[in-house]
Amino acid sequence: MLRRVARRRLARRIRAPTASVSFASTTSKTAHDALRIGIVGLGSIGTIFFARLVQAAQERATSVDVHVTGFVKSHHIAQLQQQQQIVLCQPNANGDADVSAPLTTIGLTNAKHVEDQLRGDCFTIRSLETSIAPGLSANEPLDAVFVTVKAYDTPSVLQKLKSLPSVLAKDAVIVLLQNGLGDVPSNSGASGTDARQWSYSNGVTFVGGKVVAPGRVLVSGLDKGQTFISLPALVPGGTRERLVQAMAATGLHFDVVDAATMQAILWKKLIVNAAINPIASLLDATNQSVAATKWSRQCVQAIVREAHAVAASESVDLGLTQQEMVDAVLRVATATGTNVCSMLADLRKGSRTEISAISGKIVEYGKKHGIATPTNEFVLAMIKAREASLSGREQ
Asked: What is the pTM of this model?
């Protein structure tokens, strides 16, 4: 339902061009030059993007040549090499990964392990922790990077990218795909002695995934889930067009939208996550628990009421009344009823959650505008308390 709601607000959507479009007039690069795309963080979403891009590149699904670089922690490279493949699976009747009929398989058996890298046909997997970038010469920097790590890791990733300037093209675009609201760096133009003009943007995907083993992801919503990004004016026309064409070949239902539409989509997903994730996590139950009782529905009402008011104060046009937003949340909770949300999964692992980028942002912007957000403050405190309790450390 949330996806249908989002579609109603996309009147200014930029459609993906067909494979016959010529890009020679918009950039010094030709359609035969490889578009180099980086994926930082091969968790569930990062692995989905990486695998689908590599598959499209290997199958020559588009006239744009694509090389994909996945950035992982050093120990992850050895794990992937041991697995010998990256696999995207569908759920079987029991909801488990169906390995008998994978959606996508990227073989790693023939990939060369060179200097803490795996190099294969159309792809490289390397560590962002490495201080140099072997295999990526000054003539082969990345044109676009998708950052798919947890929201709280994004600032350190951006700082690391800045410390490795040769990895990115001078006019590269960095797209932040994460839960909640992050602080996107300013697109103010060139800076520094080498006049780099990296541009930054947000992205939202409604494709879901769960890592069941290193390199193996259980995928949901691949057939219907859309992915939206906004691209600042600083992004060269050639990069923009080739990126859209490359992403269209992945089957990820990819769209580029303007900044205002992007903000509306971000806030809609934020409110859905703010209403479902903390409640399900505090109940230690699947998403269906959020819509199951009048008590949980009352919590949804309160969270949405506060968040809706904050969004309005931020001049975000959700295109939905407060009650329509509540109804959308409850429909999502019911439609994904058997899912364990990422926040609860993190708590069960004793890991840090993204509550600060979700409920925390609603509270932060509420204070900015003098809007009381007591329910969001309460669930923020409760999830933080659970984090501290399960991790055994004071926060």
From this structure: 0.85
